[in-house]
Write a structure and sequence with these properties.
- By secondary structure, the chain is α/β, with parallel strands linked by helices.
- The chain contains 14 helices and 21 strands.
- It has four domains: 133 residues, 3-Layer(aba) Sandwich (Rossmann fold); 117 residues, Transcription Regulator spoIIAA, CATH 3.30.750; 95 residues, Transcription Regulator spoIIAA, CATH 3.30.750; 59 residues, Beta Barrel (OB fold (Dihydrolipoamide Acetyltransferase, E2P)), CATH 2.40.50.140.
- The protein has a six-stranded parallel β-sheet, with helices on both faces. A five-stranded mixed β-barrel has the order 17-18-19-21-20. A three-stranded parallel β-sheet has the order 7-10-13, with helices on both faces.
- A hairpin with a 5-residue loop joins β11 and β12.
- α8 runs parallel beside α9 and α12 packs parallel to α13.
- The longest helix is centred in the C-terminal third of the chain and has 25 residues.
- Bound molecules: iron/sulfur cluster (SF4).
Length: 452
Amino acid sequence: MKKKLFIKTYGCQMNVYDSERMIDVMAMEGYEETDSPENADLVVLNTCHIREKAAEKVYSDIGRIRKIKDTKKKNGEEMVLAVGGCVAQAEGAEIMKRAPVVDMVFGPQTYHNLPKMVEKSISLKAKGEKSRILDTDLSVDEKFDQLSKKAVKKKPTAFLTIQEGCDKFCTYCVVPYTRGSEFSRKVDDVMKDAIKLAEAGVVEVTLLGQNVNAYHGTSADGEEWGLPELITKLAKIDGFERIRYTTSHPHDMTDDLINVHGTVKECMPYLHLPVQAGSDKVLKAMNRSHNTATYKKTIADLRKICPDLALSGDFIVGFPGETDEDFEQTMELVREVTYAQAYSFKFSSRPGTPAADMDSQVAEDVKSQRLTKLQALLKTQQMDFNKSVVGKTLSVLIENTGKTPGTAFGRSPYMQAVQVSIGDADFDQLKGKIVDVLIKEGGPFNIQGVLA
Ligand code: SF4
């Protein structure tokens, strides 16, 4: 009987990507995925340090898994419990100390070693020896070498990591500490993985990196390529009809990259470009290396090249020292720029980051009030954007079946979730195809239409 693997993924798309790769590497060792920890021989908590109280949530999940592990042990079954990801990287030794039930802790750059770690843990357990392993090395190169050998699943969309880590050191962020300094994969290695994805039927590829538009990979002839060159080359791969990239930093939106949105038709008219705040004073305290004027100029340049660009962003409210006036400037910027969708959060301090020790922390109730106000505005803008496409015919990539019979789920070029009525059409014939959909309705979170 095949061994079973349960993975809980917290946080961002990088973590979703990493979890998929863990499933791939463990599949090669004969493990198959299960959706319940009770059935699992191996449980992995792939953690994220970005959200509030991240570590506490992990400890509470460890507590739940401990009970399952104890029950299994009473029944003579062993379970390996592993904690990976950014909390593991930041607090690995502490987790080992505080949670003896955890068998192994590994950082985001070492999960290619998961099979070896699991094997070692199991063999140490069998000998009755201490089976605890801690691996939080930060060198990235080897990880990608190992992962490129993985099998590729058949599906129309895929993530492809091209870059990891960050050197920007925004004062609120743990990424430079948990993912390490910036690393760009070699052009040839990215191309090899991309060709494998296209051969497996991937139509839409999303290039991933913590600071993806800072990409500077080396080509075979030793030249440095930026993201514009890479996207242009990837667009020539047979089968790729859509290319997206995330997450970008305003500082690295070069003119060449902006131009790609006008010259490469496969580059979708959608961009996630976090600004974080609308006050230059706050942006400076965040060490964001852009200000509102440079950000607005970038958006204007993008919209000149790609007039229908759908913009997405991230916002943090209640950063230390943020006054009512600073917050009002954020609201003003949102009104001026307008977003098709956005993510917004209250500032929450991460131990070890400069912002955690800053004076003038903003009171929780003030943060909550500001967030409510900002989210109401962003929600209205998202609704307006979704309504603006009603009556238009959009090209939609069909990814999955819909919630009800006779419907399918897909994405518009602008990343909108689309529920498509397909009538009597055969879903299997539509899956992975880009079809014309006449949009009939636009709601706050999705749009609906019929095959045109
Ligand atoms: S650019 Fe992004 S990943 Fe890098 S430190 Fe700032 S917020 Fe973190």
